[in-house]
Amino acid sequence: MKALVYEGAGARSWTDVPDPIIRDPRDAVIRVDAVTICGTDLHILGGDVPEVRPGRILGHEAVGTVVETGAGVTRLSAGDRVLASCISACGACRFCREGRYGQCRGGGGWLLGHTIDGVQAEYARIPFAELSTHRLPRELPDDAAVLLADILPTAYEVGVLNGGVRPGDTVVVVGAGPIGLAAIRTAQLFSPAHLVAIDKAESRLQSAKNLGADMTLTPEQVPLGAIRSLTGGLGADVVMEAVGVPETFELCQRLVRPGGRIANIGVHGKPATLHLEELWISDVTITTGLVDTSSTPRLLDMLAGGQIDVTSMVTHRFGLEEFERAYDVFANAATSGALKVLLR
C-alpha cells in the first residue's frame, strides 16, 4: 500500500510500505476513507517530537471502514464505518478508569503517527479497536466526522474545559488555526460574553468571525490594550494558547486577569518562559494537557444533531495520491488560506 512516511526532520515521502496486519487480538485494520493533516504533523516534520523515528507513517485523524478484526474484538465487524480516535485506550489502567485516556499506562495514549504507524495511508492498524473507534451514523459526512478524531475534542477538553469557560467570561484564543477555531466554536456552548481571536493571518481571523468571535486582533494591534479596554482594565478570564511557540505563550501571560486561567493547547517544541515573578501574586491558573477524547461521544451526538457545525473548516480536498501537495498547501496556510485539508 501507499503511505505518507516521515523520513527525518524536514523530509517526508508518499511511498510503498507493507500492508498493516493484526498484531494483537484487540486490533482492527481499517481501509482509510478520509484523512486529514494536523498541525502536530508539522511539528513532527520540524523535528519537535523526537519520539517519532524515521520510517514512521504519520497521521492520527481518519474515518475508515473496518476490513479485519482480531479475535478479541466482538463489537466491531467488517464493513463498519468508524472514526479512528487520535488516542488509544487500554481501558483497564488507572488513568483509563478515570477517563484520562491520553495518559493510558496500559499500552495506549497517543500512539498513531507517534509511536506506531498512523493513518495517513491506504490502510491502518488500530490498537484497542473497541475503545479507540466510534461507529458513525450514516448521515454524518466524512468531512465533519474526521474533525472529531482530534481537533474538536482537543479544543473542547484541553482548551474550553481545562480553561473553565463560564457564562459571561471574556475568552481570548491566541492562534486561529484549526484548533483555535474549534476552541472558539465549542466555547460558545458555555455562553461567554466575549470571544476574541488573535492571529497574524487575516484569512484566519475572518474564519474566526464566521465561527463566532466578536473581536479579532493581530499581534501588531496591541491586544493587551484592547483586552483591558474590553474588560474594564482587568484582562481576560480565560486565555487559550493554540499555537505552540514561546511568543504566544508569553502573550497569554500578559492578557490574563488576576484569578484568570491560561489553557495551553499548543504543541511546544522549544522552552517557553514562565513569568512567575509577575504571576505568583495574581492567583493565575495554568493548565496543560494531551487530549483524552473522553468527550468524543458527546461531541459526536452534538455534531450529528446539528448543534455544532464545523464543516466550513475543511477548506481544501485532495485524493490520497496528492498527499505531498496537500502537505505543501497545509504548511503554507498564510498564502493558501488552508484550515483543514481532507484527503479521500
Automatic annotation (TrEMBL):
Q: Can you tell me where the transmembrane regions are?
A: none
Family to which the UniProt record says this protein belongs: Belongs to the zinc-containing alcohol dehydrogenase family.
The positions making up the signal sequence are none
Q: Which GO terms describe its molecular function?
A: oxidoreductase activity; zinc ion binding
Q: Indicate the segments forming the Enoyl reductase (ER) domain, all copies.
A: 8-343
Instruction: Reply yes or no: does the keyword Zinc apply.
Output: yes
What Pfam families does UniProt report for this protein, alphabetically?
A: ADH_N (PF08240), ADH_zinc_N (PF00107)
Q: What is its EC number?
A: 1.1.1.-
Q: What cofactors are annotated for this protein?
A: Zn(2+)
- UniProt lineage: Bacteria, Bacillati, Actinomycetota, Actinomycetes, Micromonosporales
Which protein is depicted? Alcohol dehydrogenase
Transferase: present as a keyword of the record? no
Note the PROSITE patterns from the entry. ADH_ZINC (PS00059)
UniProt keywords, alphabetically: Metal-binding, Oxidoreductase, Zinc
Top-level division of the source organism's lineage: Bacteria
Q: What class of enzyme is it?
A: oxidoreductase
